[in-house]
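WARN  no MSA supplied for this record, continuing single-sequence
INFO  ligand: magnesium ion
INFO  echoing inputs
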Amino acid sequence: MKDAIINVEGLSHSYGKTVAVDNIYFHVEEGQIFSFLGPNGAGKTTTINLLITLLRIQKGQITISGVNVAKNPDAVRRNIGVVFQDHRLDRDLTIWETLEFHGKIHSLPKETRRQRITELLNIVELGDKRNAFIKNLSGGMKRSVEIARGLLVHPKVLFLDEPTIGLDTKARQRIWHYIKQINREENVTVFLTTHYMDEADQYSHEICIIDKGKIMANGSSSSLKNAIGKDIYHIKTTDDLKASQILANLPEISHVEKNSNGLLLYLKNNELSASKLVKSLTIHQIKLGNLNLLKPTLDDVFIYYTGRKIDSTVDA
Ligand SMILES: Nc1ncnc2c1ncn2[C@@H]1O[C@H](COP(=O)(O)OP(=O)(O)OP(=O)(O)O)[C@@H](O)[C@H]1O
Ligand SMILES: [Mg+2]
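INFO  complex generated
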């Protein structure tokens, strides 16, 4: 096992009476892409702000690259790059000026600065737009500039709060392409938050599901899927409402979800044969139209642990 580059122990944070983060423990191994996945208000930004020294730690302990965040925030800041949830760019600067300015405040020597900016603009494919004003860029391009800025001083860990929020599919894919390239080629550990299930599933090495300030599950996408047990039946019947009530009482079924195409039956560890399923319905005069056996998705994992669907249509 590689060493943990981020270690979080017993972290809690409240805003007045609102408990935003509730006694969480997790670690991130060096070199990983780690996704913090959760719905709106889950506590993702609060956690990231605690990690990046923007919020004062009320309770618990964080170390990044061996440095205690509460005791030595300046040293932590030197090791990290940050991309915030909301754009923080000066609209009236050009791309090049934005990065130059950042390099200067971090005391990068002139030649190093130029080389690094050129290198990063090549990665995010903005080299030929270096003199364009921020205000004239698309949302995806602005994100790319922010990512380049976050990487300017070779951070050990890059923190990204909802890097793809509000972007179209193509721009989202492009941002992920850059994140993966950076992770691989620059050897940067990536900690990001997202409420896009598909992205966490597809691109991250490790996923941590957070809901209402608590960590519900943690692991690789496949281990999370395997951990929720057996497969899922997708069925369509002549009376889905009645069928869902009957089937929810079967000992082999953990719970039943209704969707527009029928019912999803989440099986517990013990098997439920198709014939027993059919029998349980026919004795109540319900006929089965369709029956498919599905493998669990990350959506299913989320529902399993939180009892509800993540609402990725709500963009903050
Ligand atoms: N500055 C603040 N003052 C008071 N309450 C806050 C503040 N920031 C966040 N909260 C509350 O803390 C909880 C967690 O918020 P947080 O922003 O950490 O969630 P999030 O997972 O990042 O959500 P989103 O997906 O919408 O960005 C929410 O209930 C939110 O209303
Ligand atoms: Mg947030």
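Confidence is low (pLDDT under 50) at residues 312-316.
INFO  checksum written, moving to next record
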